[in-house]
């Protein structure tokens, strides 16, 4: 018998993945939520003795909530460069201290950002949206992206991981942030269209990466660098990317990856896309996935953040005139 959660990892939210009737969470749902493969969880269990799931009547692994909490912390420490052998055997208290001392999940002090998170937590969405738009119009697109959108996303993620914001807060946050960014971006995109601004960029994420704010922030920065941008939104199948590249005479495909997408899926997706695209079309990748810090497929360039975008574009333009 197969556990339904093994064959169908369920929805994105850990709240929805929890099934009280089974008194634990299935391996597929856990792997999906935390961004690990099922194999990794099984190997850790064998090699390090953690996690230690119970079993359903049918023999399927069921993970109690406290192990899920520890696994989430373990994943964040690994993303920050710690080794499985050093973290898996430790108690959650030791791991919390380690996270604190190495700055994992710690927010830099900023009262304006704290205020925005407090509005979200209190359910004051109209005020939240208003404050975002006010800061965006006051500061301008570039400063808003760098000083508000990027650090606020990290803060909201940390608050979710610490249990002080719920998944629905994250949804409301991303909705409000997308509306604000698009409102500021639209007149710029309209003015750029038809000017033949080079490079011509196609921006999206691969299937499996549902986080779309990073690539939208990158689109804002590429537009400010006077690139013509075609934003497809998140999760575009590979063949659709290839079709859009041909139809719009695209120079660069820009993709975003968070730590949720397993490294293997990133490597195979990039490998296949590289194979399908003509060699003169470049692939640029960015985002917080630790997989991007490793050696990447030939023909794929890592742009390490939003501020290096200007330099990367300048280099591309220089190479294009040679
Ligand atoms: C909003 C949000 C959501 C929304 C997404 C809605 C949407 N339409 O985008 C919802 C609620 C759906 C969601 C779902 C989930 N999320 Co979420 N989410 C976030 C949050 C708060 C922001 C997401 C985002 O877009 N980040 C991407 C950008 C903003 O950040 P970045 O990757 O660091 O990239 C930076 C730069 O590198 C650059 N950049 C990004 N891309 C590119 C590309 C190029 C080309 C360039 C040049 C630069 C560049 O821009 C960013 C600016 O700082 C983050 C917190 C965070 N720190 O990111 C969590 C976060 C990514 N989510 C997380 C998790 C665990 C999940 C869920 C599994 C569980 C859940 N929360 O329900 C599901 C997974 C869904 C799935 N399987 O895909 C974790 C991932 C942790 C991990 N190690 O795996 C995070 C980090 C929260 C946390 N602190 O734990 N999420």
From TrEMBL:
Domain of life: Bacteria
Keywords: DNA-binding, Transcription, Transcription regulation
HTH merR-type domain location: 27-81
Keyword Secreted: no
UniProt xrefs under SMART domains: HTH_MERR (SM00422)
Pfam family membership, one: MerR_1
Domain B12-binding: 198-322
CDD domains membership: B12-binding_like, HTH_MlrA-CarA
InterPro entries: Cbl-bd_cap, Cobalamin-bd, Cobalamin-bd_sf, DNA-bd_dom_put_sf, MerR-type_HTH_dom, MerR_fam, Meth_synthase_dom
Entry keyword Repressor: no
Name by which UniProt lists this protein: MerR family transcriptional regulator
């Amino acid at each position: 018998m197969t556990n339904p959660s093994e064959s169908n990892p369920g929805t994105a939210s850990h709240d929805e993945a929890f099934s009280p009737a089974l008194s634990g969470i299935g391996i597929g749902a856990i792997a999906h939520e935390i961004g690990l493969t099922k194999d990794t969880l099984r190997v850790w269990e064998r090699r390090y003795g953690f996690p230690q799931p119970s079993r359903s009547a049918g023999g399927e692994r069921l993970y109690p909530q406290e192990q899920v909490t520890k696994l989430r912390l373990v994943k964040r420490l690994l993303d920050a460069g710690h080794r499985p052998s050093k973290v898996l055997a430790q108690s959650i208290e030791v791991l919390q201290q380690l996270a604190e001392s190495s700055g994992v999940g710690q927010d830099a002090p900023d009262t304006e950002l704290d205020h925005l998170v407090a509005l979200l937590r209190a359910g004051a969405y109209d005020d939240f949206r208003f404050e975002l738009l006010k800061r965006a119009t006051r500061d301008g697109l570039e400063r808003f992206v760098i000083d508000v959108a990027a650090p606020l996303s990290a803060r909201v993620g940390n608050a979710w991981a610490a249990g002080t914001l719920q998944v629905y807060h994250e949804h409301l946050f991303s909705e409000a942030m997308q509306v604000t960014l698009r409102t500021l971006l639209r007149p710029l995109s309209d003015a750029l269209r038809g000017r033949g601004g080079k490079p011509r960029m196609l921006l999206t994420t691969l299937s499996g990466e549902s986080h779309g704010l990073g690539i939208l922030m990158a689109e804002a920065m590429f537009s400010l660098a006077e690139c013509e941008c075609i934003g497809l939104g998140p999760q575009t199948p590979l063949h659709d990317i290839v079709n859009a590249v041909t139809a719009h005479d695209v120079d660069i495909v820009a993709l975003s990856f968070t730590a949720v997408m397993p490294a293997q899926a990133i490597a195979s997706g990039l490998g296949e896309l590289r194979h399908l695209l003509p060699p003169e079309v470049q692939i640029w990748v960015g985002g917080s996935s630790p997989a991007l810090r490793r050696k990447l497929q030939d023909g794929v360039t890592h742009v390490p953040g939003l501020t290096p975008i200007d330099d990367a574009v300048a280099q591309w333009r220089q190479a294009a005139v040679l």
